[in-house]
Amino acid sequence: PGYVIDERTRMTMDGETIDLIPLPLAHTDGDTAVKFVKNDVLMTGDVFRSVGFPNIDRGNGGSLKGMLDAFDTLIAASGPNTKVLPGHGPITNRAGIVAHKRMAVALRDQVAKMIAEGKTQEQIVAAKITNRYEKQTGNAPGGTGARFIGQVYAELKASS
Q1: What is the spatial distance between Cα 68 and Cα 10, in angstroms, rounded to a whole number?
Q2: Measured distance CA(114)–CA(121) in Å, rounded
Q3: Residue 19 in 3-state DSSP?
Q4: What predicted TM-score, i.e. pTM, was given to this entire model?
Q5: Distance CA 99, CA 103 (A)
Q6: In Å, what is the CA distance from 147 to each residue of 5, 16, 32, 114, 122?
Q7: What is the DSSP string of 39-54?
Q8: DSSP secondary structure, 78-113, as one string
Q9: Which of 9, 22, 124, 138 is most buried as measured by Cβ atoms within 10 A of its Cβ?
Q10: pLDDT tens string 123-151
């Protein structure tokens, strides 16, 4: 793997303060956000996307808990005027991350309830529980809703 930041690191370059913010076990096992403090810009990498549903790369160390923790870290690192540069999609703001986290938590809770009712992954995907979020996620192509539900299902099922 590449270079991994284990703890928040601050540096200065050309008069700009830059914070490297580790987001462990989120999209993958080594994600890092970059905050340009003076310019109030936060680059999230693939942990946050303003288009499409979250992508938990479980095969490369990503996890649902890490993703939700990372959203909290990104929200804490951004203010009301922060420009948020996502890994995918147009530039957004702190409110975009907040809405994304709320959506992920609501879908996690719904999947957990359906697992407890004995539903299979296929049945949960077929229930189209992501439909109410399609507008929020920009109707991203490629089945990102079904992919996210499958990732959540796999993680929740493994821990039940």
Answers
A1: 23
A2: 9
A3: strand
A4: 0.92
A5: 6
A6: 28, 38, 23, 17, 11
A7: TTEEEEEEEEESSS--
A8: --TT-EEEEEESS-B-HHHHHHHHHHHHHHHHHHHH
A9: 124
A10: 999 999 999 898 888 766 567 899 999 99
